[in-house]
Design brief:
Blueprint: H1 3-23, H2 32-35, H3 37-41, H4 44-51, H5 53-56, H6 68-71, H7 77-86, E1 91-94, H8 101-109, E2 112-117, H9 120-132, E3 139-143, H10 146-149, E4 157-160, H11 184-192, E5 198-203, H12 208-213, E6 221-227, E7 230-237, E8 248-252
Parallel strand pairs: 1-2, 1-4, 2-3, 4-5, 6-8
Antiparallel strand pairs: 5-7, 6-7
């Protein structure tokens, strides 16, 4: 699809969304995404994410709220749902919850979810979005630094999806854990002290050998998460979450 045609399609979607919002008389809080539309229209990359909004949240039009960073950091819902099924347990900690995409799906599969983010505004978004899905009461939201909280945390599973640095991570031939801020290896080691059962969601170009190498027992399962015939992310599973160690699994979604 050419750039011109793509822009035309997205502009039409934007116009339809605004019309729908006005017809439904959305209040000021629920028009947050509508207010972002000028910013979206001016940014080619943002238009791409706007076109995929229902893949991020199937209930997007029910009042989902995202800030700028969340548009390109939220795990697509179908992938988040699959990861949640793999991580099914009594208590799971979502260490970098962001706007809540993963925490919401965990709440459907786990008895209790602890969602952590150092940014209070992200926690507000996550709490609101969880309420859209009717699961906010199953999630404990905490504003805080994971490294400071980690020594006091207990969980059956820890889920890691740290900030990758925005879309620019794809420009590198290979993504390494040290490329993240905070350092991805430090994150893994802190989480491993809570439980050996970890799920690490990372860019599709992440160094696979490194993901296996950081495992204490040298075992990991690496899963490619695919949407629309494209690899979107990879998830590395450790400890009791491993179904087939040291093999690359391809998940078609």
């Amino acid at each position: 699809m050419s750039g011109t045609r793509y822009d035309a399609v997205v502009d039409d979607q934007v116009a339809q969304y605004v019309k729908s919002g006005l017809n439904n008389k959305l209040d000021n809080e629920d028009t947050q995404n509508v207010q972002q539309l000028p910013q979206i229209l001016e940014n080619k990359d943002m238009k791409k994410y706007w076109a995929q909004r229902y893949k991020l949240f199937s209930k997007f039009d029910k009042g989902i709220r995202l800030d700028y960073d969340s548009w390109f950091s939220v795990t697509p819902e179908r992938i988040a749902r699959h990861i949640a099924e793999r991580c099914r347990c009594d208590l799971i900690v979502d260490v970098f919850c962001g706007a809540g995409g993963n925490s919401i799906q965990f709440a459907f599969k786990c008895e209790r979810v602890i969602a952590i983010d150092i940014d209070p505004s992200k926690i507000e978004l996550a709490r609101h979005n969880a309420s859209v899905y009717g699961v906010a009461d199953r999630i404990e939201f905490i504003v805080g630094d994971f490294f400071q909280l980690a020594p006091s945390l207990k969980a059956d599973v820890v889920f890691l999806s740290p900030p990758w640095g925005g879309p620019k991570y794809l420009s590198a031939p290979q993504f390494c854990l040290e490329d993240m801020q905070p350092n991805g290896i430090d994150i893994f080691e802190a989480a491993q002290k809570i439980t050996p059962n970890l799920a690490y969601c990372l860019p599709r170009n992440t160094n696979i050998d490194q993901l296996i190498g950081i495992a204490t027992d040298g075992e990991a399962e690496i899963e490619q998460n695919i949407l629309n015939n494209k690899v979107k992310t990879i998830t590395a599973y450790y400890g009791g979450l491993i179904l087939d160690p040291c093999r690359l699994q391809i998940l078609c979604k």
